[in-house]
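Minimal example, chain plus NDP.
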Amino acid sequence: MNTFAGVDLHGRTALITGGGRGIGAATAFELARSGAVVALAARNEASVVDVARRLREKGYTAFAFRCDVTDTRQVRDLALSATEAMGRVDILVNNAGTASSNPLARISLQEWNHIMEVNATGTFLCTQAVFDQMVEHGWGRVVNVASIAGLEGGRYIAAYAAAKHAVVGFTRSVAAEADGTGVTVNAVCPGYVDTPLTDETIARIMRRTGISWHDAMRGVLETSGQSRLIRAEEVAEVILSLCAEEAGATNGQAIVLDGKDTP
Ligand code: NDP
């Protein structure tokens, strides 16, 4: 059962970064199903064009834009194009992200900067680009896709955990600025989710250690204490719930999806 089936986003517009696959694509479907007009952005234009086409085939209104969220000019253009296409941006889902894993000694400055730029700087730039129009309109929802790694550290994820901690700190601080404006800023913090990003993590472990897919997956789930991978749709439902009219009293929170199912 879809526990968030009651959320009504008719008349609302949403911009979702990293909307070409995984959690971003699932979120686009979830928000569109609830009535929102959606705009998707990613570096690979074909991926977002394809998701937007599938959304339109279902009768939803969807737009696709190419944007690298680490590039100030491209983010400014994205905000302008999305606003022009949809009339305004009511909801921003800062989902674009990337991960890496390496022991401290092997993290290059290039890897560190890249992980910080996509996850943390991208979230900052996109939020800054639409925040004022939300405040002026007196309503807005910013949902940042952080991670459990935004709240806890772990072996070999120093760069990713630092970037996601930055996203959580950013969320809490902008939420304080948003207080009383009708705009809320929250984060979702999932454990491992069944997406291409996790496929890449498993493939990397297999390459480096020579262990099987099964053992790599078991190791990943054991380190995160999860009984199973979380589905992208489960993350999308929590994002949707934070976008609801009724979620106005939830601001500056980091909502954990720990993947620890009760028996
Ligand atoms: P995927 O790799 O499946 O999708 C990532 C999306 O982000 C793609 O559409 C990708 O498109 C886009 N993207 C990456 N870099 C950029 C960039 N510089 N500019 C614009 N778009 C970009 O990842 P997930 O769906 O798994 O992850 C989504 C978010 O969830 C990320 O922030 C991730 O850190 C977070 N997360 C994921 C977890 C997991 O286990 N999978 C767990 C916890 C959090 P393109 O490459 O075309 O730009």
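Residues 17-18, 20-24, 42-44, 47, 67-70, 95-99, 118-119, 122, 145, 147, 190, 192-193, 195-198 surround NDP (CB under 6 Å). The longest strand covers residues 183-190.
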